[in-house]
Amino acid sequence: MSYQLKQTDSTLNNNSYSMQSTFKVMLLGDSGVGKTCLLVRFKDDTFLCGSFIATVGIDFRNKTIQIKDKQVKLQIYDTAGQERFRSVTHSYYRDANALLLLYDVTSIISFNNVRAWLSEIKEFAQDDVIICLIANKVDKIPERVVTKEAGQKLATEYDVTYIETSAKTGMNVELAFSATAQCLLEKELTQNSKLASKTLMNLVQLNNQTHKSSCCLFSSS
């Protein structure tokens, strides 16, 4: 694993920090962007291959992870991307602590629809909800039509964290969920959503920098 989850001294000195925290995380995005595959990769470390089966309404799974001495239970809601299920998923927005918004890098339509999803988030979710924009299916290099630069630009415009993932290879899947959990712990401790969002961005940037440094160490001269 190429990233490290860090805690501040104040966090470590807080006795209540050894108890379990529970957070609700929702996966959002168009149908077919890989929400269910991302969840299954994180939950069971497997990849769903074969025919695409759309999620109907809401699916739900739990996973408990450990960050230092803290047990963190993530209640993860996998939502249907089809328009006819939107009224159902809207009712879950308000209780979500974090929203992972996915698009498929091989689908310009799913990328263009990110703005509509962000508008729904603004309308139905809490004002201080943590948002992460996830560019999925980056393993499909020949079919990619949405560049990394375009994704990063959109994330910067909306001041949200940007992560590239592949549910097929597992690239950055654990990072997306674990860094979000770390961010939510920060928010729980400080009651400062802006500081927590910054923590999420820093963790992702740290992972990217560490990955680049590792690559350089093994490059040929």
Structure described in brief:
41% of the residues lie in helices and 21% in strands. The protein is an alpha/beta fold and 221 residues long. The protein has a single domain, classed as P-loop containing nucleotide triphosphate hydrolases (Rossmann fold).
Strand order of the main beta sheet, please? 2-3-1-4-5-6
Low-confidence stretches: 1-17, 214-221
What's the helical proportion of residues?
40-55%
According to CATH, what is the class?
A: Alpha Beta
CATH superfamily, please?
A: P-loop containing nucleotide triphosphate hydrolases
> Total domains, how many?
1
Distance between the termini: 26 Å
Mean of pLDDT: 83
What does this molecule look like?
- The chain is an alpha/beta fold.
- Helix content is 41%, strand content 21%.
- A six-stranded mixed beta sheet has the order 2-3-1-4-5-6, sandwiched between helices.
- Helix 7 (173-190) runs antiparallel to helix 8 (193-217).
- The chain starts with 8 loop residues before the first helix and ends with a helix.
- Residues 1-17 and 214-221 have low confidence and may be disordered.
- GO terms for molecular function: GTP binding; GTPase activity.
- Keywords: GTP-binding, Lipoprotein, Nucleotide-binding.
- InterPro entries: P-loop_NTPase, Rab, Small_GTP-bd, Small_GTPase.
